[in-house]
Amino acid sequence: MPANPTIELFSIGTELTIGRIQDTNAHWLAQQIAQLGGNLRRMTIVADDQDDIIRAISDAAQRETGIIIITGGLGPTPDDMTVESVCRIIGTSSVVHETILADFMRRRDIKARVDATPPMLKMATVPEGAEAFQNHAGWAPCIKVSYGVSTLFILPGPPREMEALFNGYVAEFISESVQTKSAALRVMVDMSESEVSPLLESVMATYPTTYLKAYVAMRQSVDQWLPVDIVATGKDAADAQHILNNAVKGFSDLVTEHGKHMELYNVE
Predict the structure, then answer these.
(1) Which of 65, 81, 189, 246 can bridge 60 by disulfide, Cβ–Cβ 3.0-4.6 Å?
(2) For 45, phi and psi rounded to 5 degrees?
(3) What is the tens place of the pLDDT at every residue in 72-106?
């Protein structure tokens, strides 16, 4: 099966590294990337420290990561330094993106550029040569810039804005870049982890492009049925679904052979 470009996620913000808020952005992005068939290999949280940001993203580029998605650090305050960090990584200067600034001014009913505020100018600043896409759900734009074999997408941190910009600009790029698709299903079995583990390994051996995982932590008690995810990858959506169907049947047959039962996961 053809290899897809690798993808890495970077969530920028000291509020994340000190545990003040959860990194829900990375979780949501991982779900979207999986549905698009993307090959996500790392998720990293970095504090608002320019040296750390530069080091982390530079390492990803040196690993020849195909798509690097960065969230956070695009606001108007001094601790928002993602753009400046990326400029240092790729060796370019920062410039005000006039189209983005004009959109800011229109939305604030500002007639003269000289009246644009410093926060507006900062949020309209991008690495020289980068593309910038308007944020209709907020202010800071989606920024796209190339560096070596990597394509970097920089998204604002607020989840509502990040999700809108990802769906509007990043998802299509990933979809066009990948050569495989995935399909997934969650089921429940009345088995313990030790009982089900050999069955998971058997199915993955039979269908090499599948991934099966049992979630012990999701059970509230030992008497509760065990959730199991079955994820299949194929050359296209139909192929992925076909492989998933076969893997689910194979797993169900093994469960039955062991005198146990499998049901579809019911989300309530």
Answers:
(1) 65
(2) -105, 130
(3) 999 999 999 999 999 999 999 999 999 999 999 99
